[in-house]
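User: Show me a protein chain along with its predicted structure.
Assistant: Here is one chain, sequence first, then structure tokens.
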Amino acid sequence: QSATRSVALCAWTIHMLLNLSWAPVFFGLQELRAGLKINVALWLSLVGVILPTFYRLSTPTAYLLLPYTAWLTFATILNRDICRLNPSKQGYNNAKFHAQLTRLQLAASTYAGL
């Protein structure tokens, strides 16, 4: 029981660290494909390790994670579709292009005194 709890706590900690890294990678760095890889790792860690481990420790806890599993599945599919709609050429995608274009326009308007 104690070893299972340690595994569950370690797996959950790693999962949460991955979860916290997704938004800065996807939105901040606009690295859509890296975000997708993080999403897949999140899903695999949840379904492959956390749910079975939590089920052994506490069945209600595992059941309470099912809505989160559904949400993570949806988010992963959405991330995949966003990657498909923003093709990459040497790591440069439309989302990153538009973000840099907006920053350039803002800098130009500041420089021009607008």
